[in-house]
Design brief:
Blueprint (H helix, E strand, L loop, with lengths): L24 E10 L4 H11 L3 E10 L4 E10 L5 H15 L2 E5 L4 E7 L4 H11 L5 E8 L5 H6 L4 E3 L7 H14 L4 E4 L8 H6 L4 E5 L11 H7 L4 E8 L9 E8 L6 H24 L3 E4 L2 E4 L2
Parallel strand pairs: 5-6, 5-8, 6-7, 8-9
Antiparallel strand pairs: 1-3, 1-4, 2-3, 9-10, 10-11, 12-13
Length: 304
């Protein structure tokens, strides 16, 4: 869609030059601020004046918190970079007291952590190789050797970091070193069955996603599907959320539920639950990588 400043006193404005897909540079702008008049006009005018076309625009006006959240995907002149756009947009951001970011086409680099359950890792690898994950998996880290063959068959480095109570601090330091070494933008806990320390959670704040094997709040602790069977549940669910120091209480990105009935035993519930886990996690990873998730205090705004 071509941007036109509709509030301009001039009825006809020069249109941006059309670029083909190979010439056009693609960006995403995300922002959050207190709701007030003129925000969208300021954004669209800014883009129009630089010859950009809007490809996708979504916004959420939170009437309860009196905030506005916006995601705009746009394309145009290859002479611009995300850094240049951020610099030129800063005056508008200051005027409206915005929290904002510009993102270019560079894919997020994803480091995946796993323990003995491999269904989420397998699904992420499948979607990555098919080009639908939204980011690039760069390495797999595990506290077990169980899934080395799966990772290496996909051409991914597999790093084994054993964890014991005595080596936990050392293991977490090694993980942070790997995040830096592989320039990982996102850490995904794909059924990584270790509780991260508060310090590590703070180090990865906003860039680590976990999959929880229940529809939170739900059955916490060991053997969740046996707990669910004992309670006669009618829905099996999974929750993908950002990692925080509060165990399994981080901002929720996505949840998936599947209806079941009395005929499902613990094994059947586990099988169905694994499907829900893989779906919820892959969506959360893709939406994060596509800059569709905006943090809003303890919750999220997700532009699907």
């Amino acid at each position: 869609m071509t941007l036109v400043a509709t509030d301009s006193p001039t009825s006809i404005l020069p249109q941006p030059a059309e670029l083909n897909d190979e010439q056009a540079q693609k960006f995403v702008l995300t922002l959050s601020c207190v709701e007030r008049a003129g925000i969208v006009q300021a954004v669209t005018t800014f883009l129009f004046e630089r010859g950009f076309n809007i490809d996708e625009h979504q916004q959420f006006d939170d009437g309860i918190r009196q905030t506005l959240h916006l995601r705009t995907a746009f394309s145009g002149s290859p002479e611009y970079s995300a850094d240049r756009l951020e610099e030129e947009f800063s005056a508008i951001a200051d005027r409206f007291d915005m929290k904002f970011s510009f993102h270019d086409q560079t894919k997020k680099r994803v480091l995946v952590m796993v323990s003995k359950f491999g269904h989420c890792l397998n699904d992420l690898i499948f979607r990555w190789r098919g080009g639908s994950l939204g980011g690039d998996i760069v390495a797999v880290v595990s506290n077990h050797e169980t899934h080395r063959a799966m990772a290496e068959a996909a051409g991914l480095p597999f790093i084994h970091i054993p964890v014991t109570p005595d080596t936990k601090a050392e293991a977490e330091q090694k993980l942070l070193e790997l995040v830096d070494e592989y320039k990982a933008d996102l850490v995904v806990l794909a059924r990584y069955m270790q509780v991260l320390s508060d310090n590590l959670c703070r180090s990865l704040e906003g860039r680590a996603i976990n999959i929880h094997h229940s529809f939170l709040p739900g059955f916490k602790g060991a053997r969740p599907y046996h707990q669910a069977y004992d309670r006669g549940v009618k829905l099996v669910g999974a929750t993908a959320h950002y990692v925080t120091a509060d165990l399994d209480e981080g901002p929720i990105i996505e949840q998936e539920v599947i209806r079941v009935d009395h005929s499902y035993g613990p094994n059947a519930l586990s099988t169905v639950g694994q499907d829900a886990e893989a779906l919820a996690l892959s969506r959360a990873v893709r939406w994060h990588c596509e800059h569709r998730v905006l943090l809003d205090q303890t919750s999220t705004v997700v532009f699907r």
